[in-house]
Each structure stands twice: as C-alpha cells, then as structure tokens.
Specification:
Layout: H1 15-21, H2 27-38, H3 45-59, H4 72-83, H5 86-89
C-alpha cells in the first residue's frame, strides 16, 4: 500500500514584510517584535538572547534589511519555536 503525500498549505503571512515594516534591523529587534505581537507573557532575557542567536545563525547575518530576499523561512522557523514555548501556551 502506498502512502499518499499530504499537500501542505502554509499560512499566508509575510513575516519578512512584518518585521521590516516594524523597523526591525537586528535579530534582537525581531525577537522583541514577535514577542510583543504574539505573546502575552514576556520572555526572560536569556531566552530572548538564545532566540536572537538562533535567528542570526539561520540568516548568517545580523542585518535584517540585507536578508529581505531570503528571510521568510528562517522567520517562520523562529515563530514556530516561539509559539512552541510555554509562554505562548499561557496566553
């Protein structure tokens, strides 16, 4: 018996546009913006730093404006990690 692949439809979000329109220029700015937008409970400083370092590693740079053509997948991954945290579950 063959397994039928499930077609995946991703959410229609333009995270790159959102963070750039919000004036985010560094990974720390992005984490702070997403935290304010999606969480009702604040992250601790160590977690915020780890998430920013994760995004910087994914993108290969600290300059968000330079990543405008390829940041979407990395931003979606960061948002997935952020929404998987207990702080999101408390909201």
């Amino acid at each position: 018996e063959r397994v039928k692949p499930i077609s995946r439809t991703v959410a229609r979000l333009d995270l790159t546009g959102m963070v750039l329109n919000a004036g985010c220029s560094t990974p720390e700015d992005v984490v702070s913006y997403l935290e304010r937008r999606f969480l009702s409970v604040q992250l601790d400083a160590a977690t915020r730093h780890k998430l920013a370092a994760f995004l910087e590693q994914e993108l290969g740079t600290r300059d968000m404006r330079a990543t405008s053509t390829y940041a979407e997948d990395s931003l979606r991954l960061l948002l997935h990690v952020l929404l998987s945290r207990p702080e999101y579950q408390l909201g």
